[in-house]
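This is your field. Please look over both lines of this record.
***
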Amino acid sequence: MGKRDQRLRELCKQLGKDYRICRIDFEEVIYRDFGNGFNVEISGAYSRRPDKGVDLYLWYGTEAPSCLIAKTVRDVPREDIPRVVKGLYEYSKTLQGYGDVKTEIFRRRFPLWNCAEGDEMRRIFYGPKPKFTDADRESFNRGKYECKTLLQNKGGQPVVISKCMEGDIRAWKVEYGFSTLVFATYEEALAYCRGRFFDLEGKAL
């Protein structure tokens, strides 16, 4: 056993029987299952520096790709791990009170704001309800954002996934009605849309 593994196992033992070593994203980490659908990952615990903090991730679910990070606490001193884990457990219990836990996690991680004032997405149609196709994507380009995917809600109104094309800014937006959410990656934006919206043929994502 290398010194790196030994340091990891010593800390795991100190934390108690509720913790174990497992591999997440190609890294050996300390793990604890809260038993309520949430679990905590302690990353970076193998460092030889006693003053180096660790990162804690509160996960909802255990199977990719449906699992997601509900909260992250970085650079936690080792002596504070039990206190922070307890706080994450209490936080997970507040999320359990919502019928759609994933939606609540997204709402807290990616704040939703009303963009009705100013630069809102608005198109007006007359006559029969329009039928959108991929050819309409360009019509939903707005400023520095370019529409990459066009979807629809259950009422047939457009849902736009667009990318910021300005410099090195990595931002994706999901817009529908007067609501806008911002994500770091296209995968996160699309994950939010799954189960909520439909493709242009009306099929669920």
About this structure: The helical segments are 3-15, 81-96, 101-109, 186-193. Residues 112-128 have pLDDT under 50 and may be disordered. The longest strand covers residues 68-76.
